[in-house]
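Workshop exercise sheet. Pairs work together: one partner reads the sequence aloud, the other fills in the structure field after running the prediction. Swap roles for the next sheet.
Pair: D.N. / O.F.
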Amino acid sequence: MKTLLRPALSLFVLLSVITGLAYPLLVTGIAKTTFPVEAGGSLIVKDGKTIGSRLIGQNFSDPRYFWGRPSATTPMPYNASASGGSNLGPLNPALMDVVKGRIDTLRAADPGNTLPIPADLVTASASGLDPHIGIAAAAYQAGRIARVRGIELAVVEGLVAQYTESRQWGIFGEPRVNVLALNLALDGLR
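Structure field:
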């Protein structure tokens, strides 16, 4: 028994050190050297203070700002430790009620807007943390933001165009706008 236990324990300790310590340290070191911003969480820092991440949405409800895609995380919106979808199917009455409430909120914030409301403004993403909205969702909100901030619509539309990100690697997904980056640019206007 002793002759079997010693090699098994030695192999267990060796593999634990390799897979639990050496490999993670090597991969982390390569990531921090090659992609330092991404490995650090793609944080957005302004005046020495971390404001958020380019990878996780934030809750904006002030009409002066672009609103992101709704979060499915509870009890706090955009809570990365509670990432996950709502699991409500398209025919679920609870989903219908939530979407109707979001539509009412959007209409109340901008009653003169007759554009169709894009789906990404009323439905959560699969993770519940999406930091992006589509071009149509940004265009839908541009008039409200220009009116509330007292700036020309062309200025807001120019910022949307400037902060539009193309498809991932040119083929995956759709063009999109990072809401936090766009709202920071709005705050930076004189």
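Discussion prompt: Helices lie at 2-34, 36-39, 93-109, 135-149, 153-162, 179-187. What would you look at next?
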